[in-house]
Write a structure and sequence with these properties.
single chain, mainly alpha, elongated, Arc Repressor Mutant, subunit A
């Protein structure tokens, strides 16, 4: 896994370089550029090419310096979901109990209850 927390997008200059297969752009850079679309994670490129994180990272930096791609920082808090600090087990258990009570079908059900439910439709 690459482990880089940036998303890459091909710029207009990058699109032109890719479309024309401009030989001024080295072949390995063009290969990486071909996998960069809108908001592409470096991990996707590593996987598709089978290249190391270091190699892909170096090429992406070179492409960005050349203006062929741009990137945005995702940061660690945006790339991984972490709910551990927001939940209390007591709240979850209380919510489960409320749901069980609301969905309790074990009580008596009369014909009047069925008619009332049918009329609500």
């Amino acid at each position: 896994m690459c482990g880089m927390s940036r998303l890459y997008t091909r710029t207009e200059a990058g699109r032109r370089a890719w479309d024309s297969q401009n030989s001024r752009v080295p072949l390995d850079c063009r290969r990486v550029l071909g996998f960069v679309e809108k908001d592409t994670a470096a991990e996707v490129i590593c996987t598709r090419l089978g290249w190391s994180a270091g190699a892909v990272g170096d090429i992406l930096r070179e492409l960005e310096e050349s203006g062929l791609v741009r990137s945005v920082d995702m940061g660690p808090d945006k790339s991984e979901l972490d709910f551990t600090g927001s939940f209390r087990i007591e709240d979850i258990r209380a919510g489960q109990q409320r749901m069980r009570q609301e969905l309790d079908f074990t009580g008596p059900l009369s014909a009047d209850d069925l008619r009332a439910a049918q009329e609500k439709k």
